[in-house]
Design a protein that fits this description.
The complex is a heterodimer of chains A (399) and B (281). Chain A is α/β, with parallel strands linked by helices and 399 residues long. Chain A is 39% helix and 23% strand. Chain A contains 17 helices and 16 strands. Chain A has helices at 18-26, 31-38, 67-74, 97-106, 123-133, 138-151, 167-180, 197-214, 225-231, 249-254, 259-265, 270-273, 276-279, 293-302, 323-331, 354-363, 383-390; strands spanning 3-14, 41-52, 56-60, 82-87, 90-91, 108-111, 185-189, 217-222, 234-239, 242-247, 285-287, 307-311, 317-322, 347-349, 368-371, 377-381. Chain A is elongated, with a radius of gyration of 27 Å. The relative contact order of chain A is 0.10. Chain B is flat, with a radius of gyration of 21 Å. Chain B has helices at residues 9-21, 24-47, 50-64, 71-86, 90-120, 122-137, 140-151, 155-179, 183-191, 196-207, 209-225, 227-231, 238-247, 251-277. The chains are: A alpha/beta (399), B mainly alpha (281).
């Protein structure tokens, strides 16, 4: 994996005496103390992270956590006080004005919370803006702007003014404007926060769809954890200008770094984030190629279950056997386990979100079998475990 | 009680003006230049037949208001211009109009760049603000004295005094318009890699347009208010009629000439106002 964007010790101190404040910060003085002594406010305190090529990296935090300052330092709308930003290995903080402008023009596009459409320009002129200032010819920039608008699904509004469009459409235009430049990196600052919930969900889905074929590196700012969990390949949680935790959505949910993150994730709709693999438990597995009816029955008795999951040597799922059927089979002195295996059983893939199979789990009489893409049995899902995990308990409590 | 010697401020100013008068070449050149602009306007107005002038004014008003027609304004303009023509004030009116247009044009050419400078630099703002206050609050009569010393008698010193008195609103409103552009739009311009110049031309000035137009409108009205004062030093036009009427205690002619100024003011004001409202509709 290559890091497209790497941020090292990025710090922003607001105020006149930022140097003195910076020294105090390095000595470990608290922010309140620094404010008292120097009058300077620490906006972002030594942030370190890497964003991989083609991923969506979500920076999360409440207002005042420094996330907006941080994203603005990445394209230097706000000048960092300390620290480095590397894009493709090039240190952005060392660039002069001209080189910085060039980087902004070609490598990065930004989408803002309040859309930032220029009210005196039509939709198409807004999308052309980035190309226009680069001196791209009229035909070419029209062409690119048109394509970009089509990509986000805005057709037939080219000559309207922004205030004639709904919020959702305005933000699509803003997204189209960012994409028209063909940037490798998209900076999205609370891009969907100003939209109503329905529009927001729609835009999130659209972004995920778009990302499938665009493969941009996206740094996305959000204060909504559900949004972060839905979009992010990695999530970084910030508080008071400090990075609290960085990880995949699953890591954040399952191993919160501290009480703050834990409190944060308390209200999350876990069913949307957790997949079958997060709620499955170890099944009683019977290898039909090795075991006979007696060992199988013993194994079920030892584990106090009435169902055994039958697999072959390659661990491929065949079906389920019932303990009562097994006793019958032993009584009739047969060893043909295949005759009593029920193959018509509910099963699901490891990556299926729990929310998708919730209804089926709650109505099914036997536990769901969870398999991977090679049909190998990975685990089973029992009703109790699902409910428990969704309410914040550990899946191991149910094994 | 007042034992302190009187400050020789008046002497200093006299000396300064006297010092300035030695640059005769420069001021003569400037006088010719401003005079040429004014004469060009006057030349065009003299060339136009009165009926064509009326058609142009009404036509422009019609065009500017095409999305939201104001018939009452068109009728007022027609009646107003017929009134001025009927009272034999036509030539005076065009002289006044030339003076106002020339001084507004100069105020604009100097004022807008100053306004931009003031918006971009806080230091410029701190320096310019008190100067603008001074220019606006100093009684306009006072400007006539050095104006005569430097530019002689006639239209040009009147125009110069008008420019000094009328320019501040253009500077202020340009500054305000640019500073009021929402910061997120400035961020947009920056984040896409605009140069300072591109940001100014493509984002700030277009968005400051209404405020800028309001400033120009104000400057025009202020320079129109200077015409009577300017007539004291020989600037010809409607102001002269009023000035003479005052001297002769001639209420009738004074009021009719005054009315002509009012009509001219209303037409110019409504026309520039329409230009501001044009985009809003």
């Amino acid at each position: 994996m290559t890091a497209k964007v790497e941020v090292r010790n990025l710090t922003k101190i607001f105020g006149n005496r930022s140097n003195a404040a910076g020294e105090l910060l390095l000595k470990g003085t608290s922010k309140q103390e620094i404010l008292k002594k120097t009058g300077a406010t620490v906006g972002v305190d030594r942030a370190n992270f890497q964003v991989e090529d083609g991923e969506i990296f979500v920076i999360m935090g409440l207002s005042g956590s420094g996330k907006s300052t941080l994203i603005r330092m990445i394209n230097r709308l706000i000048e960092p006080t300390h620290g480095d930003i590397f894009i493709d290995g090039e240190n952005l903080t060392k660039l002069d004005k001209k080189a910085l402008r060039e980087t902004r023009r070609t490598k990065m596009g930004m989408v803002f919370q309040d859309f930032g459409l220029l009210p005196n320009r039509t939709v198409i002129q807004n999308v052309e803006y980035g190309l226009e200032i680069r001196g791209v010819s009229k035909e070419e920039r029209y062409d690119k702007a048109r394509k970009s608008l089509s990509k986000v699904g805005i057709d037939g509004y080219d000559d309207q003014y922004p205030d004639q469009l709904s919020g959702g459409m305005q933000q699509r235009v803003a997204l189209a404007r960012a994409l028209a430049n063909g940037p490798e990196i998209l900076l999205m600052d609370e891009a969907f926060s100003a939209l109503d919930p329905l529009n927001r969900t729609e835009m999130q889905d659209q972004l995920i769809d778009l990302q499938e074929d665009l493969n941009k590196t996206i740094i996305f700012i959000s204060h909504d954890l559900n949004e972060a969990l839905k979009l992010g390949d990695h999530i970084m949680i910030m508080r008071d200008g400090e990075v609290v935790q960085t990880g995949t959505p699953e890591e954040i949910l399952t191993q919160p770094a501290n009480d703050y993150v834990e409190a944060f994730i308390e209200n999350v709709d876990r069913s949307k984030v957790l997949t079958a693999s997060n709620v499955m438990i170890r099944p009683v597995m019977i290898n039909i190629d090795k075991q006979g009816p007696r060992t199988a029955l013993k194994q079920m008795r030892d584990n106090e279950v009435s169902n055994g999951y039958v697999v072959n040597n390659k661990r491929e799922l065949i079906g389920v056997v019932d303990a009562t059927d097994m006793i019958e089979l032993i009584r009739s002195k047969s060893t043909d386990m295949k005759s009593i295996v029920k193959t018509d059983i509910p099963k699901t893939d490891v990556d299926t979100p729990v929310s998708d199979i919730m209804d089926d789990i709650s109505t099914s009489t036997i536990p769901f079998a969870v398999t991977n893409d090679k049909n190998q049995l990975q685990g089973i899902i029992v009703r109790g475990a699902v409910l428990g995990v969704l309410s914040g308990m550990e899946v191991s409590d149910f094994e | 009680m007042n034992n302190l010697p009187k400050l020789p401020l008046a002497d200093w100013i006299d000396k300064f003006v006297a010092w300035l008068t030695q640059f005769t070449g420069f001021f003569n050149g400037l006088t010719n230049f401003i005079g040429a602009i004014n004469s060009t306007f006057q030349f065009i107005f003299d060339l136009l037949p009165i009926w064509l002038f009326m058609i142009i004014v009404i036509g422009v008003t019609y065009f500017v208001n095409r999305k939201h027609q104001r018939w009452s304004l068109l009728i007022f303009e027609l009646l107003g211009m017929l009134f001025i023509w009927n009272l034999d004030f036509w030539r005076d009116m065009t002289q006044t109009l030339s003076l106002v247009l020339t001084s507004s044009l100069i105020a604009l050419v100097i004022g807008i760049p100053l306004g931009i400078l003031m918006a971009k630099s806080n230091i410029a703002k701190v320096i310019l603000e008190p100067i603008l206050d001074f220019m606006q609050t100093m009684p306009a009569f006072v400007y006539l004295i050095p104006a005569v010393a430097l530019f002689g008698i006639g239209m040009v010193p009147g125009i110069v005094a008008s420019v000094i008195f009328a320019m501040p609103p253009t500077v202020r409103m340009t500054n305000m318009g640019i500073r009021d552009v929402p910061s997120d739009l400035i961020e947009v311009a920056d984040s896409y890699g605009s140069t300072e110049w591109q940001k100014l031309i493509k984002v700030q000035l277009p968005l400051a347009r209404n405020s800028l137009m309001a400033g120009i409108n104000q400057s025009m009205m202020l320079s129109l208010s200077m015409v009577v004062i300017a007539s004291m030093i020989g600037a010809m036009g409607l102001g002269t009629k009023v000035y003479f009427a005052v001297g002769r205690n001639d209420a009738g002619n004074g009021f009719t000439a005054g009315l002509a100024i009012v009509i001219l003011a209303i037409i110019m004001d409504r026309l520039t106002q329409s230009l501001i409202k044009q985009r809003e509709n």
